[in-house]
Amino acid sequence: MSKAKLTWPMRLNICKGIARGLVYLHDESHLRIIHRDIKASNILLDEDHNAKVSDFGLAKLSDDGNTHINTRIVGTMGYMAPEYAMGGHLTTKADVYSFGILTLEIVSGISCNKNISYKSETEQYLNLYDWVCLLHVKGTLLELVDPDLGSEYSPEEALTIIQVAFLCTKGHFCRPTMSQTLSVLEGQTNVQDLEKELLSSTTYPDKKHLMKQLWPDHSEIHPTHGEPLTESFVTESFVTESFIRESS
């Protein structure tokens, strides 16, 4: 399947549209809704290339103070947040993770499940997320941008969108909300400021409590002393998967 010719402004607008849809589901609807299957084929574009979230195989969280639900695992491999894929622990941050992966696809034009040949001393094969991690370490994130765009894109915008997408794929406690993500995409918040805010405001679970859950007899085998440690819609539409390269 060939890719539709999407310009950089179109791609940026699509990412913003998906983010706005998720902000509505998570924060603005009567019930907090977690989509659970955000991926390219579940995003439709109208004739003006405005993104619409579709195909609601979803879970709902009422406003009763619940922070998460444990549920059977449904979704698509490659887009699923690790804590959800491995343990069924579902929060809105699962959609944030999926949004991050999808955004990386939109920027690069590469499917998250496609094997990428990486030439090194020994030839290796990486998936899209592994490649982004490698580029992040090397400080060359702009290599991710779809070469079909040539020079017809804003390096500043591209770097911002890649960085915020990368933040969305971090560990559960370190991910931004979709509202915070949209704020960066719309230019209201600097991505570096958001990263600092997340680092300073994130409250991690009590380590002693977690260890007792993982190893119930831990406190008896290894007695601890002192204080517990803590750390701080749609018209005639196109499926967005049409511009993602098919896996070979």
From TrEMBL:
Q: Where is the Protein kinase domain?
A: 1-234
Task: Write one Pfam family the protein is assigned to.
Answer: Pkinase
Establish whether keyword Ligase is in the entry. Answer: no
Keywords for this protein = ATP-binding, Kinase, Nucleotide-binding, Transferase
Whether Iron counts among this entry's keywords is no
GO molecular function per UniProt: ATP binding; protein kinase activity
Tell me where on the tree of life, at the top rank, the source sits: Eukaryota
- Please identify the protein, giving its name as recorded: Protein kinase domain-containing protein
Organism for this UniProt entry: Helianthus annuus (Common sunflower)
